[in-house]
Design brief:
mainly alpha; elongated; (rape) hypothetical protein; transmembrane; 56 residues; transmembrane helix; membrane
Length: 56
């Protein structure tokens, strides 16, 4: 019985935190980039190019 109760409590907390995180990010309009957009941003900054030309 104790194992079932512990499992139920842990799953409830996990679900509440998951729902809260989704609600928080939706309310704050956090931008989710696609892989292509993320790569474009990385190469526009020049950081990715600089890292590829390091002296080895």
């Amino acid at each position: 019985m104790a194992n079932t109760l512990l499992y139920f409590v842990l799953m409830t907390v996990f679900l509440l935190f998951s729902v809260f995180k989704i609600w928080w990010e939706t309310a704050n309009k956090r931008r989710a980039y696609t892989t292509k957009e993320w790569l474009d941003k990385a190469f526009e900054s020049g950081a990715a190019l600089l890292n590829s030309y390091r002296v080895r």
